[in-house]
Write a structure and sequence with these properties.
This protein has no helices and eleven strands. The protein is an all-beta fold. The strands form two sheets. Strands 2, 4, 5, 6, 9, 10 and 11 form a seven-stranded mixed β-sheet that branches. Strands 1-3-8-7 form a four-stranded antiparallel β-sheet, with no helix packed on it. Strand 9 and strand 10 form a beta hairpin. The chain is globular and about 40 Å long.
Length: 119
């Protein structure tokens, strides 16, 4: 089992920045691919970014490329999502996930942290 706790969400104006954190406990953190997903009201949960154990393999969804940065600190069992140039359409509940594979089909999930971007 892996327990994930997200933090760092909040209300920010368009163009602003937030940094989300996800603290993991349980099994060896460095064994897992870590990802961020988000869900807006009335929409399905969507992939945002993922990072492999070493931090050398990173992938973003197109809508956040150049604005968001995912990183991890295996010594602190934490993954981060730095979000810059935020837009109202980034408003969502952001979830952290951990999986052995890149597809996140059998992932562990956190409870989410809410991000609201005002126009």
């Amino acid at each position: 089992q892996v327990q994930l706790v997200e933090s760092g969400g909040g209300l920010v104006q368009a163009g602003g920045s937030l940094r989300l954190s996800c603290a993991a406990s349980g099994r060896t953190f460095s064994n897992y691919v870590m990802g961020w997903f988000r869900q807006s009201p009335g929409k399905e949960r969507e992939f945002v970014a993922r990072i492999n154990w070493s931090g050398r393999n990173i992938y973003y969804t197109n809508s956040v490329k150049g604005r968001f940065t995912i990183s991890r600190d295996n010594a602190k069992n934490t993954v981060y999502l730095q979000m810059n140039s935020l837009k109202p359409e980034d408003t969502a509940l952001y979830y952290c996930a951990a999986d052995s594979n890149y597809d996140f089909r059998a992932a562990y999930w956190g409870q989410g942290t809410r991000v609201t971007v005002s126009a």
